[in-house]
């Protein structure tokens, strides 16, 4: 007898083949039959012609801390995800010796836009080493299949402590200890090694995240461990320092695939051709036998922020003046004419790789704090400045100051023009992922990238057929990151499944909830058109609610293809 039979579905195999109308049977967590009337089952679901696909594989998430207090890894399961990779950009929490826990949490709260109080109160510390962290995840029983990166900033902090954000060149002993930590993580089942050279990645009180001050020699020494063990992938938030040429050199030296994550690869109206140059250079590297790919976002990259935490602006040097300040101290800086002049100078000659390049049409008033200003919501700062005959820098700061810095702005900087984004999504050097799920959750929630892709890029503008769109969200992602078996709906594969209606699938607008440890706030989205999500044959979300399990059915993934 089967454990589960889903009857009468339009079955998409995740490999790009046309769908077939079939019943799908599951036993012991795996797909045992695809066809007509496979026999009796303990549980039966009537699909009534809905689409059944492999669960979405999300290669870029930041659930490292949240998973210790929330085994559901909300909201990803509700949004069709069944496999997630955490520890991206080298920002995680393991290994973490007890004396540096607070340092790790403070940095993580800033660089990934997380609630510090929630991190300090919610994170369950039952580990110090990477292997112990993996063991804790197994005891926790996550709802999603979960793979974990060994992280550059994490390991640098574990070895160097506070000096990790101050000392550019480690001692020989420190470098040897970092290499040993990477090797230990790989031996414990890490999916690979992740780092960041991004100028947008600042830590607590404006200090640089540790990996961003590391030199090329250190990066090569640490990625070299992947070559030594002959497995694992390398991903980097590259900024401008880790150029496609450097990423190709690392791929060539290690024999391992390398993945680029940077806003420089995204469509930007200020530099409309720049993103495609990255894809072209990756394609050239692939043609030379060196796997270098771009992690590609399919959603407009939007950021909610206030001037109490202007994280998207911190890479401008003018904002060095606010580091470590709060309240009235912040307000005094924002009023100062010399600060505003310095910011204007930054915008006149912006550094490459930063988020905001000075287009004030792309910063809008999201939520006004005062009732008298509600009519300004959805209006751009550029439009308000023209209307008032004022400089947009002054309009921006004066509005926030008038609202006691409580104005919530929305920055819409990248991937906002479909005609410019579509060629990037279709490029063979791109891998569609980059949700950042679990991060920046105070301001945004892009965990539903897969459902957005199915709604917008498949149904609405038909850039992809449904079967090809599903392939790009499932087996293609798993294959690129060397995750065996996942992302395919075939006999013998793990039963990670998403049942949905192609005509209505999508995601809601983000909304705020206060459900973090200590009552902290985060942004969530809900799905539409989802009728069920299964992980290893176990229903975890029925389209409306999570299904309660004392132990989640997700596996902690620790074996990967070479």
Any overview of this molecule?
- The protein is built from 17 helices and 23 strands.
- The chain is globular, with a radius of gyration of 23 Å.
- The longest helix is centred in the first third of the chain and has 16 residues, at 172-187.
- The mean pLDDT is 95.
- It has 2 domains: 56-300 and 415-483 and 517-526, Alpha-Beta Barrel (TIM Barrel), CATH 3.20.20.140; 303-413, no CATH class.
- By secondary structure, it is an alpha/beta fold.
CATH superfamily of the largest domain: Metal-dependent hydrolases
What number is the mean pLDDT?
Answer: 95
Poorly predicted regions are none
Q: What is the total number of structural domains?
A: 2
Query: What is the helix tally?
Result: 17
CATH topology label of the largest domain: TIM Barrel
* Count of DSSP strands: 23
Helical content (DSSP H or I, runs of 4+): 25-40%
Q: What does the oligomeric state look like here?
A: single chain
CATH architecture term of the largest domain: Alpha-Beta Barrel
Largest sheet: 8 strands, mixed
Question: What is the molecular shape?
Answer: globular
Computed Rg: 23 Å
